[in-house]
What we know:
Elements: E1 4-8, E2 11-15, E3 21-22, H1 24-31, E4 35-40, E5 45-53, E6 59-68, E7 71-81, E8 86-91
Antiparallel strand pairs: 1-2, 2-3, 4-5, 4-8, 5-6, 6-7
Amino acid sequence: MALTVVRVGGFAVLRGKAGLILNPKPFLTNLTGKPVVARLKWGMEYKGVLLSVDSYMNLQLANTEEYINGELAGNLGEVLVRCNNVLFIRGLVDDEKPPAEAPEDGAEPMTDAQ
């Protein structure tokens, strides 16, 4: 399903092919535990397994690889991406390879209390 980000009243919402606006919280909850790509406002992309999303929509990724201009820049491991840096997040498409490893032992999802 192709999704686009649309600005409505200062808020970013997702619009699907059928023109439906999707609530981002269930969308992100559905991606939890799956390989994703998160593009930051500054151009770099982080590919990793989405461990958790908090109420502010901060992202916790495991086995994260950083890509700059489409080239692998390095393996970062577990990262926390602050919500205001994220341009978009999406699941991997069929022809993309997932991050190199399964989530690291001891990697625990964040909670709002952390």
